[in-house]
Amino acid sequence: MSDGALHAPESKPAPVVKPGEFVFAAVGLYHGHIYGMCNGLLEAGGILKSYYDPDPRYREQFAKRFAGAHEAASEEEILADPEILLVAGATKTDERCALGLRVMAAGKDYFTDKAPLTTLEQLDLARDAVQKTGKKYAVYYSERIHVESAVFAGQLIEQGAIGRVLQVIGFGPHRLGSIEKPGKPGRPAWFFVKKHYGGILCDIGSHNVEQILYYTGAKNGTVVRSHIANYNHPEYPELDDFGDCELVLDNKTTGYFRVDWFTPDGLQNWGDGRLFILGTEGFIEQRKYLNLGVKDSGGSYVFLANSKEERAYNVTGNVGYPFFGQLILDCLNRTENAMTQDHAFKAAELSLIAQRDAVILAP
Fold first, then answer.
1. Where exactly are the structural domains of the chain?
2. What is the mean pLDDT of each run of 10 residues along the chain (363 residues)?
3. 4-140+322-336 and 144-320+352-362 have identical folds
């Protein structure tokens, strides 16, 4: 796959509810992650009833993938439908919070693509709305919840395979592409405008902050230092093509991540995403999407070393994605097993702080 924006994993159906017990809709189809979000909910037993986007191009593309869903005439039609319990959305990043506020005000849970918002002011509004409505503002941090190596690594840690986690280091390179033109694929023009996408640490950096919090078991943290740059894309002056960040967490663990738009054309996938987890009794490496140098190696790999063994796992097709079933049951039972609201918002908060306080290295 050449573009991470179109990454939409599929797995074997593992329904947690009976047909018709959990009905959802999709509003805001700008980012291709909406396909992965909907796939996950469908595989967990959800029913995709309807969808809407103001742009007919995105509605047409969505209809080809989910032919059984109804094309709503407006967002209001979906929000007024009492059968719909959750709305999934992947609109422009700076519009995701406003959509979530409307969804929760209509009495429905909200499931948004990452980054879930672009400013700390929006975060305050989202937190307040969750408190007032009692509804969920769930976030699709796909690089952990929709990657089998990431799920499996979490299971290994829970089993004590590497002892207490001390540090997490992540690398999230992506392939950029260009602005889409009639008849040609690419990224929408808004993606290259900072007020719309939030900056690289806000955007793809939020994946990494979430993983650092999750694997270390931390509840909070401090941004020690962060950097952003536009090293090589003068045609897109508001783009950050590089970013990195160092974190110290509240449980005295640490994290570091680097994100960039420098995936070379010769790579077999859109990005060699990797994560390294150091524990007191061993370490884990994740190779999320490929095994470098091995032709057509698309898949999900985990490497483990501890006091007992050294193991390599290809977990592709063997682990699944439990987040989606847990989210459905959380919505029905008002629990927080898939991801706590505090965790989802804290990952966003630290990403926003890292972006806001970043030292600009270039141009």
1. 4-140+322-336, 144-320+352-362
2. 60 90 97 96 98 96 96 98 98 98 98 98 98 98 97 98 98 90 75 96 98 98 98 96 98 98 93 97 97 89 97 95 98 98 98 98 96
3. no
Fold type of domain 4-140+322-336: Rossmann fold (3.40.50)
* Residue carrying the six token digits 């690289």: 200
Q: How far apart are CA 108 and CA 320, in angstroms?
A: 27
CA separation (Å) from 14 to 37, 45, 135, 147, 312? 15, 7, 25, 16, 26
Record the pTM: 0.95
Q: What is the DSSP letter of 247?
A: E
Q: Find out whether the peptide bond into 363 is cis, omega within 30 degrees of 0.
A: yes
Residue in 239, 258, 253 with CA at minimum distance from that of residue 191:
239
| Element counts in the chain: helices (H) and strands (E) | 11, 15
CB neighbour list of residue 89: distance below 8 Å, 6 or more residues apart? 26, 27, 28, 34, 96, 99, 100, 103, 110, 111, 112, 113
Q: Are 263 and 174 in contact (CB under 8 A)?
A: yes
Question: Which of 266, 198, 261, 204 has the alpha carbon at shortest distance from 231?
Answer: 261
Cα–Cα distance for residue pair 216/346, rounded to 1 Å:
14
Measured in whole angstroms, the distance separating CA 141 from the mean position of its chain's CA atoms is: 2
In CATH, the number for domain 144-320+352-362 is: 3.30.360.10
How far is Cα 141 from Cα 208, in angstroms, rounded to an integer? 9
- Residue 18 CB coordination number (10 Å): 8
Phi, psi angles (nearest 5°) of residue 206: -65, -30
